[in-house]
Amino acid sequence: MRALIVGGGGREHALAWCLSQSPALEALYVAPGNPGTATLAENVPLDLPAIPGFCREHRIDLVIPGPEAPLVAGLADGLAAAGIPCCGPTAAAARLEGSKLFAKQICDEAGIPTAAWERFDDPHAALDFARRRGAPLVIKADGLAAGKGVTVAATIEEAEAAIRAAMLERAHGDAGRTILIEECLEGDEVSLFALCDGERAALLGAAQDHKRLLDGDRGPNTGGMGAISPPPHFPLEAQLAALDLFVRPALAALARAGTPFRGILFAGLMLTAAGPKLIEYNVRLGDPEAQTLLPRLGADLLPALAAAAAGTLAETALPLRDIATASVVIAARGYPVAPVRGGTIHLDRATLIPHTAIFHAGTTLTDGQLRAAGGRVLTVTGTGPTLAAARAAAYEAAAQIHYEDAIYRTDIGARALAHRAA
Questions:
Q1: Is the preceding peptide bond at 385 cis, omega within 30 degrees of 0?
Q2: 138 — phi, psi (to 5°)?
Q3: Which of 40, 173, 324, 387 makes the best surface tag, with the fewest CB within 10 Å?
């Protein structure tokens, strides 16, 4: 098979690393890719409209989208019109992530457990509701906001600031014209992944992300500062049950609406005292969850992705190796507000640490020198027979990266280890 991965972050490097090991692979391209993907595939500088033509010219058998924005913009639709298989949803189905309101409507229609919510198009009505309801509250911009459109407000002042930022100051652009105000769920947050072909779903596994910038789950929300897999408090039987509760009903509702979902569906769940509830849907692999989950795969992913795109998926869960993984995101000083760019990065010593992989995200290669070019710069993933061993490997490698502007959390997986000990 000849495959094209769309995207240029850590998730796409992990996908390239995984697919490059497939015996079914003949050629692999990444658009636009990064210095990490360049060691495994051919990077190609393509904008969205150029992708179908490139695929025809290079006889691409399968397109694998990484980020959500191209899917919401209609990448899969354009490829379908050109007769090119894509393991990603149409723009209509991608509204599960592109619109928080649409996702909630699907939940209500399909009876999917989720947080109580209200929609607001008027900032003054939203402010009045928040004051009457009281904190804690969750404020969500309706549209895509690069992972920064959700505020968990512990105080009414934080809720008011989030509403004003989204609806009056337009901090998230048009994504904040409409907002949702939700009840604040309590419990452990986990990420469930399923490969879907429009009707059927196969379990890909689960991970636990660490969203806050600082140790102890403090500081602002980010795109993700690290992840672990498997979550020790979310065993396989619970994952399979969650597939029936959160994934298959959503697939059925989308199929009834004439917008079947093909690709990877990511259900963000809160394990509350009353049972699991949906926080949100994403329509692709997570980042850094991809870097954490894909090293555990015990099967060739490429044929499974092709089967999902073709509508011929078997519902058998993809086998996972009996190991644990821990991923630590190396970010740039100033992230997520104003990350410092341009700092030099030296990885030589880090690459010598066994049982680790380093995935590039915000990096660039200039005159042979690796430099920081984004907020989240690298992801270091450790593997081991236990979470403690995987964590130790990841942090040993992270400590060997010479990058003066580096910031990273030192407690990825610590809460899970404490949970297991308890």
A1: no
A2: -115, 125
A3: 173
In one-letter notation, the amino acid at residue 177 is R
At residue 159, the 3 state secondary structure works out as: helix
pLDDT-derived band of residue 352, with 50, 70 and 90 as boundaries? very high
d(CA 267, CA 113) in angstroms, rounded, equals 12
Tens digits of residue pLDDT in 211-225: 999 999 999 889 999
Average pLDDT, the chain: 96
19 SS3 class: helix
Q: Which domains, from first to last, does the chain contain?
A: 2-81 (3.40.50.20), 122-177 (3.30.1490.20), 186-310 (3.30.470.20), 324-421 (3.90.600.10)
Q: How far apart are CA 137 and CA 140, in angstroms?
A: 10
Give dist(CA 159, CA 2) in Å, integer: 48
User: CA–CA separation, 157 vs 111, rounded Å?
Assistant: 33
Task: Name the residue type at position 408.
Answer: Y
Predicted TM-score (pTM) of this structure: 0.95
Please name which of 319, 323, 343 lies closest in space to residue 332, comparing C-alpha atoms: 343
What CA–CA distance (Å, rounded) separates 4 from 196? 19
Candidates 333, 341, 329, 325; CA nearest to 388 is 325
